[in-house]
Design brief:
The chain is mostly beta strands. The protein has one helix at about 70-85, and strands at about 10-15, 20, 30-35, 40-45, 50-55, 60-65, 90-95, 100-110, 125-130, 135. It is globular and about 60 Å long.
C-alpha cells in the first residue's frame, strides 16, 4: 500500500542567528543551492575517465519575503553591518519540521540588498545569502 505524505509550509522554519524569519512570500520562499561543482569528470582520448570531487561546501540561499516582513529590516541591518565593519555574518538554520530537511551553516551573510519594486499591490523581496561550509540532511521527501 502506498503511503501518503503531507507538506506544510508553516512547518518550514528559518533562523538567522537569534532572528526567526517571518513574512515569507506566498509561493516559493526558500531556495538552497550548492555553489560548488559537486563531482565532475573528464574523459581522456583513450576513454579513461577521471573524476574530481569539489571540496567547496558553500551554498547560496535565497529567501523571498513579503514587502511588509520585519525580516527585511533584519537582513538590511546585517548587510549594513557587513559593509561598515565586517560584522554582518550570522549562523543559519533551515528546518522542515514535517519532512525532516535540515540545512545549517555557522556563517552566512547577505550578498547584496534585493531590488525593490513598488506598485498598487505588495511585492516580494528576494534576499540572496551565501554561506561558509554548510551541511544538508535530506528528509523524507
Amino acid at each position: 500500500m502506498a503511503s501518503v505524505k503531507t507538506y506544510n509550509s508553516r512547518l518550514v522554519t528559518v533562523a538567522l542567528g537569534t532572528h526567526s524569519v517571518t513574512g515569507f512570500a506566498d509561493d516559493s520562499f526558500i531556495t538552497v543551492e550548492p555553489l560548488g561543482d559537486g563531482v565532475t569528470s573528464k574523459s581522456g582520448c583513450d576513454g579513461e575517465v577521471a573524476r574530481a570531487v569539489d571540496p567547496n561546501e558553500q551554498y547560496s540561499v535565497k529567501i523571498t519575503l513579503l514587502q511588509t516582513s520585519s525580516s527585511n529590516a533584519f537582513l538590511q541591518a546585517q548587510y549594513n553591518a557587513d559593509k561598515t565593519n565586517g560584522d554582518g555574518a550570522f549562523p543559519i538554520l533551515i528546518k522542515d519540521l514535517k519532512g525532516n530537511f535540515v540545512f545549517s551553516a555557522d556563517a552566512a551573510w547577505v550578498v547584496k540588498p534585493p531590488s525593490r519594486a513598488y506598485g498598487k499591490e505588495t511585492n516580494n523581496r528576494e534576499w540572496e545569502l551565501q554561506t561558509g561550509q554548510a551541511t544538508v540532511n535530506e528528509g523524507t521527501y
